[in-house]
Structure prediction request, 270 residues.
Amino acid sequence: MDWGMKNRLSKIIKPSTGRTVMLAVDHGYFLGPTTGLEEPGKTVAPLVEYADTLMLTRGVLRSCVDANVNVPIVLRVSGGTSILGNLANEATTVSFKDAIKLNVSGVALSIFVGSDLERQTLLALADLINEGEEYGVPVLAVTAVGKDMVRDARYLGLACRIAAELGAHIVKTYYCDDFEKVVKNCPVPVVIAGGKKIPEKDAIELSCNAVKRGAVGVDMGRNIFQSEHPVAMIRTVREIVHNDMSEDKAWDFFNTLVSEEKKAGKKGKA
Ligand code: 5RP
Prediction:
């Protein structure tokens, strides 16, 4: 692996722990004004210091995030569909030149294994990886987005393995039963998405289970920014990911942070 690729990867997955807390705020690219992301800049501002990486689109990066920000960027470079259409019908939406101009540490694209457009999305991933290899930029493959996908270990294992075989440097997927099998069969680091908003205690349990079963971290969005206490939530997820904090301790830690926020009269939300 060349120096540039290694260096960028080290900005996403922290060498000190081999783990990462990625904050995903790219949802608007197909969901539009997602709850909690109506004003992405305001959502991100109090959270960014606790994120190892920010995952978002070019438009939001340019218009809502200060260029002085000190966080590595993983740029979503696929899209072209909305929640009203066929989500699998994505294509690459950002040139590699522009991604490099935006000084990104990685690029991300979704694949839709099992859909009628699987070939199109897999070849788009392969093309992106070819460019990533040329310029030393890691590619994160996002698997299994969409309501029709059965998110079990067999399906997720298939999608993750194919992404890794094509050369993805990191794979993002969902947590499932037998998650350790998905990780074992995927020769590159796996991060989990949080999925739809669930109670904080459940999201904490999900994060603990994922890390315990081999994920190198999370690329989490809604369970952080849609929480009533997003700062407490990302700080708790950080402890789980980087310090292997147990589920019970993490729940106590979260509640302590919430109490402190209340005492200080701070709102959880920006
Ligand atoms: C959608 C994405 C999102 O970034 C991903 O779903 C992570 O966010 P969440 O934790 O809200 O599921 O890649 O394609």
Remarks:
- The CA atoms of residues 208 and 240 lie 6 Å apart.
- The first strand starts at residue 20 and ends at 24.
